[in-house]
Amino acid sequence: MPNYAVLTGDIVKSSQLPEGGLDRIFESLTKVADTIGGWQGAPTYFTRNRGDGWQMAVSPAFALRAVFATRAAVRMVDKRYDTRVALALGKGTIPGDTLADASGPAFTASGQALEAMKRKITTIFAEKSGAYTAILRLSDEIIKGWTEAQAEVALLALAPDKPTQAALASTLGVTKQTIQAHIDASGVDALIEACEVMDGA
């Protein structure tokens, strides 16, 4: 079986979202899943389940980037919105075009970690120890303060090809000074450094 980074998530307080809010969130998550698929040159098999739940399979080389990107995708819709994410690394099998029938240790561990996650926690590493655990805990302190604009810039900045601020400004139609302000305020540079150390990307 191949190795995967499996992300299992659900939307925070989905029952309290305004009409259309959940659909907007999943539109954004679907787009970011395609973006991550482009990073790794392979599909993420992003699958929605149980109404507000979702799962994707990512190359371990993009594990942290994927976690941060999915959080950004939700918060850029509205800074009041968020998603919980449980990350597990390990082997798995994907027999179809979705993760409905996926199996293996990584899928089991990720799903179980989300089920066991305490409500005050937003991201967790299934093994509950080590560097990934510490990084995810610290990252939450950064990400939970993102505005919509900061989340949008952070998502673009997380791309492994390291886009320049000029490229980001061109993409979003703003000035480089605006991009710099959002990068400084978002703390995304620190998240990118963690990705480069842990994911090796």
Characterization of the model:
The protein has 201 residues and is of the alpha+beta class. It has eight helices and five strands. Strands 2-3-1-4-5 form a five-stranded mixed β-sheet, sandwiched between helices. The radius of gyration is 16 Å and the shape is globular. The model has no long low-confidence stretch (mean pLDDT 92).
Overall 3D form: globular
Beta strand count = 5
Order of helix and strand elements from N to C terminus: EHEEHEHEHHHHH
Distance between the termini: 22 Å
Detail the poorly predicted runs.
Answer: none
- Helix fraction, binned, reads 40-55%
Structural class: alpha+beta
Number of helices: 8
What is the CA-atom radius of gyration, in angstroms? 16 Å
Mean pLDDT over the residues? 92
Widest sheet, order of strands: 2-3-1-4-5
Structure keywords:
globular; 49% helix; 8 helices; 201 residues; 5 strands; single chain; alpha+beta
Q: Can you summarize this structure?
A:
By secondary structure, this protein is α+β, with helices and mostly antiparallel strands. Helix content is 49%, strand content 15%. Strands 2-3-1-4-5 form a five-stranded mixed beta sheet, sandwiched between helices.
Topology:
Elements: E1 3-11, H1 21-40, E2 47-49, E3 53-58, H2 63-75, E4 83-91, H3 105-116, E5 123-125, H4 131-143, H5 148-157, H6 165-172, H7 176-186, H8 188-198
Helix pairs in contact: 1-2, 2-4, 2-5, 2-8, 4-8, 5-7, 6-7
